[in-house]
Write a structure and sequence with these properties.
Layout: H1 7-15, H2 34-54, H3 60-82, H4 90-110, H5 116-139
């Protein structure tokens, strides 16, 4: 996707806690680039959303936590791609920011009353973008 790994994007992602991986207990992210960290965070957030969907329908707190984690990951990605030193192509930056805005708007509008189909959409966006980020990192 044309993401460039820069010192500034590393500082932004790790120094400000925007990777969405602050609660990890292992060292999974220690050797990952910023892009790989974001791909990992997106996949984790997607899995958590899926688990929340599969959980007892009465567990609104788990769904709320999963939606909040997903929001945090997307806000972090928006911060990284908005960095002028990120080296990200303008069209990719625009698309990522539009996705971020869609996810923020959808989450804020629906909260835990989110429909099954919209939850599926959020999960699929996370997994597709995660895959694209990993492909991009692999090709650099």
């Amino acid at each position: 996707m044309g993401f460039a790994h820069t010192e500034a994007s590393t500082a932004t992602a790790t120094g400000m806690g925007f990777t969405g991986m602050e609660n990890n207990t292992g060292n999974e992210s220690d050797d990952l680039t910023v892009i790989e960290q974001q791909a990992f965070s997106l996949a984790q957030a997607g899995i958590r959303l899926d688990q929340a969907r599969s959980a007892d329908s009465g567990n609104q707190a788990y769904l709320a936590g999963a939606l909040d984690s997903n929001l945090q990951v997307w806000v972090g990605i928006g911060t990284i791609v908005s960095d002028p030193e990120s080296g990200i192509a303008e069209n990719i930056k625009t698309n990522i920011l539009r996705l971020r805005d869609f996810i923020v708007d959808t989450t804020m509008k629906n909260g835990t009353e989110i429909s099954e189909s919209m939850l599926n959409t959020l999960i699929n966006i996370n997994l597709q973008i995660s895959e694209g980020l990993l492909e991009s990192a692999k090709n650099e």
